[in-house]
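Weekend entry, working from home. Most of the wet-lab plans are on hold until the incubator is repaired, so I used the time to fold the two sequences that have been sitting in the queue since the last round of cloning. Logging both here for the record. First:
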Amino acid sequence: MDCDRMTAEVTARHLMPTAVLGFAATLAIAVGALLGGSAFETHLPGAWFFGMPGGLFGSMGSNNGDPPIYAVIAVYGGMILLVRVWFGLLRHLSAHPGVPVKRVVLVIAIWTLPLLIAPPLFSRDVYSYAGQGEMMSHHIDPYDYGTGVLGSTPFSTMPDTVWTNTPSPYGPTFLTIDGVLDKASTHKILPDILLLRLLEVAGLALVVGATPSLARRLGRDPAGAVMLGAGCPLVLTTLIGGAHNEALMLGLLVAGLAVAQRWGTVPGVMLCAVAAGVKSPAALGVLFLGWVWAGPGASIRRRVVHTLGAGLIALATMEVISIVSGTGWGWIRTSTAANKSFTGVTPVDAVSKVVAGVASLVHLHVSQLGARTVLSVIGLAVAAAIGAWLLHRSSAADVPRNLGLTLLVVALLGPILWGWYVTWGIIVVAPALSGGLRRVVIAISTFEAFVAVSSVKNLVGTVYAAGIFPDLVLVAAIFAILIIPLAQFGRTRVTPRLAERGLRRPMVGLQA
């Protein structure tokens, strides 16, 4: 056994300190969210099995928009700790490739446990999923009506009000499964929410299963790729904690890429089409697989013909799903329904505010909405141009990288950006990343992980209203979490056998 292999095996056996620290971080996030009330989760009566007003253990938090300062410390402190542990483990896996994937998957599973027990975090979208599933099970077309059609029931009162009269933007794959889960829950919202979260866990399991295959073919370390994608704090807190259906879409999409590499383009395209039936961005997977189908050195004409063939296969697959779902192709006209929302962290929104503000200074009447409309078109045009350039430069080996970057650009330059949209690109590109591009993606995912936790307005309001002493406590707590030395938790004693071989048991990479 050579030194590198022994080092990898020893490292794999000593990931427990990393698992424990990450578990503590996600536990703090979950508890802090409960204590923080409606700033971090729905906090409506009956919205979860415990911690809600009138429910088991009563109300554990505030019911107004401003979380108490200790909840802010727990949530944001937990996020800081989770990011530090994740980043440290990524550094260690880069320095010591060859750690068995199953060891890293175990670490991710341990980190995920508190998020599985907690109520849906940082978003009410999963309640809208439940409402749309209830509509499907009663043969009400979600592409014609919003959840308000269900009347005064938890399925219509718990989703965000934006969905009351808004048709579903999701595809027939998701809505079909959604309706089945609603029936399995016997039309009770809490069992339905639990099943929907487990569905997203299954989606993440698909990501974990497919990522190592893609990474090996690209000469990357499989364990590092899994940790970069599936173990990303943004992925865990939004796709598992928030139970967003991006997890299912991405699981099917990444599985489609892996299947295309191993068993051929046709089954890969079919899986990507199924993924597009969850959310439309996955259709880009069909485009990229079709483009490289003709093989290296193929002419543009042959590539276009093969891309059209892939498109026909995808359309046939989607037609079957649409027939099974009974909803037809209504989702084509509703797929942009969510774009009417505004978020303070969408680049298009931020720039439109600046444009409107500057225009008012020079006495020009430019509304924010008008600026946003124009900038949305410009942003999508730029994203399309970048995507076309990446597509043109793609070979079969480049698909995960170039498709992932395209999805990331589409999310960042689109009309609306929620933190979980960034996971589109992060998970797909994870098996192919290295060097400076890897650092950029890590930085983007880290920023979005903090932004996706809560309303920045609520956070500022809480800090402003807390008073000087709680503010000092908050600053001291966050500073302590930022500088606490984590490497000590990863130190292990040297065994005589390893000392004889000139090896020390390595730290788990928590230097930060």
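Second, folded right after the first finished:
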Amino acid sequence: MEVARFTTGITTMDTFVHIARGLLGLFVFTGVAVVFSTHRRAIDWRLVGSALLLQLVFAALVIHVGPVRALIEMAGGFFVRLLGFSNEGAAFLFGSFANQDKHGFSIALVVLPSVIFFSALTSLLYYLGILQKIVLAFAWVLSKTMKLSGAESLSAAANIFVGQTEAPLLIKPYLGSMTRSELLAVMVGGMATIAGGVMIAYISFLGGGDPAEQIRFATHLITASVISAPAALMISKILVPQTVSVDRDLRVPREKLGANALDAICTGTTDGLKLALNIAGMLIVFTALVALANHLLADWIGAPLGLNAWIAETTGGVYRTFSLEFIAGMICAPVAWLIGIDPGHLMVSGQLLGTRTVLNEFISYLQLGQMKSAGTFTDERALIILTYALCGFANIVSIGIQVGGIGALAPEKRGDLARLGGRALLGGSLACFLTACVAGMMI
């Protein structure tokens, strides 16, 4: 399997158009960040250039250099094997109900157990000090190329592997003395990447039960999360530029999670169980709320005003009624075009981007997986670009999660965190779009 195999049948002119559209997207999304900057004259354009170069170089290495691609695919294969191991645990507990061949794909019996298992494994790796060493290596690259503080580099690197509330634990001693620019970097980094636990879930959604497909999308998701780290730092430093000197030393705290390895596994299991239950509840409630909203829009507005018939006719049956999906598709279709989506998939892509922002990326990836299975995407390239664009926690709910989670670690910064919430959401979204533009140029 090769990530770059989607170039089959692509002409030189197609490649030129893809690169031109990607460059336009990079320019526009960077420009939006500049418009909302608190201090335009203080923007460090050298940092911006370094961040863009990092994204392009890493994407090119993964997609076009065999040994690097093989290494990332190996990491993707590791995640897929973890899915197999978690299925063993689920089968022990649920018996034949966890058998996909017999009962089909089930989120409750396939996805949620994998989230719990990965959370426990991550906790063990943290206790053993293995995760910190990997994070430190990525942080060193970010710090040296972009001249950032040690703390924000560590947080951005940690976000590649863990979530937006777990990564700040790695820099807990430094949170209280962070500047507004550093705090925003931590927040945007959390919104622009995804945690390993939910990555496991998205691999299941997009890969289904096919191991080759699982490895393919695992590779793309890992690549997206890594590329998004410098993108997030770049956008955050445009939105709130650093105007004072900061500590550039990279120091990982020696704190361990748990009294011993067994305690670390138990702690991780408990945290994973809370996350799995939160995901389950979230899916039930948000799916029901969307259905309720669509019923009201279609029956109370769309039918009396004749919008339902008009929408069905103008969209060729893609949307049959006035709905949240139609509204999101209309609003976010221009963004979908900028990240490189072909004209035939703009509305449905805009729908997924809007759902990610208003609700969350979990539901967007679930819908993307369902659309993939249903054959909605006739262009494989659009499917892959969306895999990159959705790869982040940039949604409204994440503002509250970060203010509450990071604020608990540094209560004196809660006010700053709340005031930066809107910019963090904007920054996380822009970083994900930049990542999708880079992918669109390379694939």
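Plan for Monday: verify the second prediction. The two ends are 14 Å apart (CA to CA).
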